Amino acid sequence: MNINEIIEYLPHRYPFLLIDRVLEIEEGKRIKALKNVTINEPFFPGHFPHHPVMPGVLIVEAMAQAAAVLSFKSMGVKPDENSVVYFAGIDSVRFKRPVVPGDQLIFDVEITQSKRNIYKYRGVARVDGDVATEAELMCALKTL
Q1: Would you tell me how many other CB atoms lie within 10 Å of the CB of residue 37?
Q2: DSSP secondary-structure letter at 86?
Q3: What is the Cα–Cα distance from 140 to 63, expressed in whole angstroms?
Q4: Is residue 47 flagged as an active site residue?
Q5: How far is 39 from 41, CA to CA, in rounded Å?
Q6: How far apart are CA 142 and CA 144, in angstroms?
Q7: pTM for the complete prediction?
Q8: Which residues, other chains included, contact 59 with Cβ-Cβ below 8 Å and sequence gap of 6+?
């Protein structure tokens, strides 16, 4: 999926849209997505000016955005202005290496459980094949 297809499945927009492409998707099971991390990211001037590092919470957020695309595609629906995905839990988060400008983050996210509109996922973010971040996510899909 290219960026135009991704924005059909996510309500996020600049500067908070954090995935650039979906490389693989197996509906109901898993997704592989990527983010190109550039020095032009709006958070780098403040985190940190002397040594820019992507905030870990934004890596987890990007992982959750990939998970949301997977969930909406798996349900066969596109969200509208009345749809929202909330974090319901984040567990077992581990940050293994910093993510810096020039890195390409590859997210592998799989659905581990789903019940009604509650989904659990296991996600891994890698740079050059090395694990940068791991997390277990739980999200609730709501209609307003």
Answers
A1: 23
A2: E
A3: 15
A4: yes
A5: 6
A6: 6
A7: 0.96
A8: 95, 99, 105, 125, 132, 133
Of 68, 73, 49, 52, nearest in space to 109 by CA: 68
Q: Determine what percent of the chain falls in helix, strand and coil, rounding each to the nearest 5.
A: 20, 45, 40
pLDDT at 84 over 90: no
- End-to-end C-alpha distance for the chain, whole angstroms: 27
d(CA 86, CA 95): 22
73 φ/ψ angles, rounded to the nearest 5 degrees: -60, -40
Strand 130-143: give its sheet, edge to edge: 21-26, 30-36, 104-115, 118-127, 130-143, 83-95
Indicate which residue of 12, 47, 50, 51 is catalytic: 47
Tokens of 63: 């992982």
Sequence letter at residue 40:
N
Cβ(95)–Cβ(133) under 8 Å? yes
Q: Give the CA angle between residues 27, 124, 72 to the nearest 5°.
A: 30
For residue 95, is pLDDT > 90? yes
Strand partners, 117: none
